[in-house]
Amino acid sequence: MTGPTTGSLRVNGATLHYEVRGRGPLLLLIPGGAGGAAAFDGVADGLAADCTVATYDPRGISRSTLDDPDAEQRVAEHADDAYRILELLSPDEPARVFGSSSGAIAAVHLLSTHPDRVARLVAHEPPLVEVLPDAADHRALVARVQEAFHAEGLMAAMTVFAAGLTRGGSAAPAEGGAPQAPRLPPQAAARAERTMANLPYFVTRIVPPFMSHTPDVDRLRALSDRLVLAGGQDSRGELAYRPAALLAERLGTEMLHFPGGHTGLTTHPEEFGELLRKTFSA
Predict the structure, then answer these.
(1) Could you tell me the end-to-end alpha-carbon distance of the chain, in angstroms, rounded to an integer?
(2) How many domains, in total, are found in the chain?
(3) Predicted confidence band at 187 (pLDDT cuts at 50, 70, 90)?
(4) Rounded distance, CA 34 to CA 196, Å?
(5) The pairing of beta strand 14-21 with beta strand 52-56
(6) Residue 248 three-state SS
(7) Cα dihedral: 230, 44, 108, 59 (round 10)
(8) What is the CATH number of the domain that holds 105?
(9) pLDDT digit string (tens) for 208-221?
(10) Which of 1, 56, 116, 178 is deepest in the core (most CB within 10 A)?
């Protein structure tokens, strides 16, 4: 299969790099973390057999540049970026949308603010920790991550962050440092290496506003027929999993489980992509 068609889109305060594959109804994939559009390299071609698949680098990540590198980041603006891409690529009909991690937070806000543009949303482990009863503990985690970054640098901050995410949000790192990361396939490892340049921006500029974002639960309840909350089979009880599980319970919907953990998209791309295809085909 040939590579994707690429383009750029001017939005408020940024220029977005986007990629398009396939033909047919639009499926927009919104990445989270620091990986950008490359996070979907393992699934995009397969999904494009049935539809037009679009993804992009969120503003400030990789090839999507900010007009002001010091600009404050807001969930609402990131969600509006996704809306602008929908308006460009699917102006006449609502699209299917998938979001992962921080990208799922933006996607949930997109659904809340522009429900007429979203036919169905699958939100995989959005760390909407403000809905949790122990939200104050997770605010402390975010504060500790920022303190570690400014005092000791990126690796120290990532150690604290990884420990908190894995152990459900504790603000203290596990004894002996960060938990060992799963071994990745070579292609995924190369992608992970390319994300390193984005990590300082992600840790300091995306994590605080996204993890302090509070969704409109009443609004989501009214839209629950087009919202699928999802988590990883291997991440039950972890911090990014818990908000999705709680929201599904509060909305009275069934939670969908994908293979792997929070990064199942990378570690289990074939199985992940197939379940995503089936979910949107149902």
Answers:
(1) 26
(2) 1
(3) low
(4) 8
(5) antiparallel
(6) helix
(7) 140
(8) 3.40.50.1820
(9) 999 999 999 999 99
(10) 56
Of the candidates 184, 199, 165, which has an alpha carbon nearest to the alpha carbon of residue 62? 199
Task: Give me the amino acid identity at 80.
Answer: D
According to DSSP, the residues that pair with 9 across neighbouring strands are 16
**Which residues make Cβ contacts (< 8 Å) with residue 231, sequence separation at least 6?**
124, 125, 240, 241, 244, 245, 255, 256, 257, 258
Q: Which residue has the tokens 């949790």?
A: 132
| Residue 36 three-state SS | helix
176: which 2 tokens?
């002996």
Distance between CA atoms of residues 203 and 33, nearest Å: 9
Burial level of 168, CB count in 10 A (0-12/13-18/19+)? Answer: middle
Its domain, for residue 122, covers: 5-128+212-281
- Eight-class DSSP state of 123: E
pLDDT digits (tens, 9 = 90+) for 216-264: 999 999 999 999 999 999 999 999 999 999 999 999 999 999 999 999 9
**What is the model's pTM?**
0.92
**Cα–Cα distance for residue pair 72/82, rounded to 1 Å:** 18
